[in-house]
Amino acid sequence: MSAHGDDRPEPSEEPEWMSTGRRMVADRSNRGAGAGVQFGAAVVVFTLAGLWLDRRLDTLPLFLLVGLALGFTGGLIHLMRTLGGRKSGSGHERAGGDDATRPPDGGA
């Protein structure tokens, strides 16, 4: 409520839709940054584990390459699941919302 006693927003207040939009952008950005860090961490951890195993077994570069491949593949799968949204999973996310506004398939 403003100082005037009515429901007009103060000049410094943002409309509700604007703050919601900014929150959505921030949420997507944070999710993307977190997924990128996890991807990098998976690659580094698996590569270092492979290097450690190679040094113990004197098999350099066998497990280093295996660890690199596993870290990259696992990190990429996690990245795609995290940022893919509705494209991955069982489709439960699509149960409401957009489907309610679509016309039935049999309609002309």
In short:
The chain has 108 residues and is mainly alpha-helical. The protein has 3 helices and no strands.
Structure description:
This protein is mostly helical and 108 residues long. The protein has a domain at 44-84. The protein is 64% helix and 0% strand. The chain is built from 3 helices and no strands. The protein has helices at residues 16-57, 62-84, 98-101. Helix 1 (16-57) packs antiparallel against helix 2 (62-84). Mean pLDDT is 79; it is low at 87-101.
Instruction: Calculate the terminal CA-CA distance, rounded to whole Å.
Output: 49 Å
Sketch the major β-sheet.
Answer: none
SSE order: HHH
Number of helical regions: 3
Low-pLDDT runs of 5+ residues are: 87-101
Structural class: mainly alpha
Strand content: under 5%
Query: Mean of the pLDDT scores?
Result: 79
Helix share, percent? 55-70%
The count of strands amounts to: 0
Record keyword descriptors for this entry.
108 residues; single chain; 64% helix; mainly alpha
Describe the protein's topology.
Elements lengths: L15 H42 L4 H23 L13 H4 L7
Helix pairs in contact: 1-2
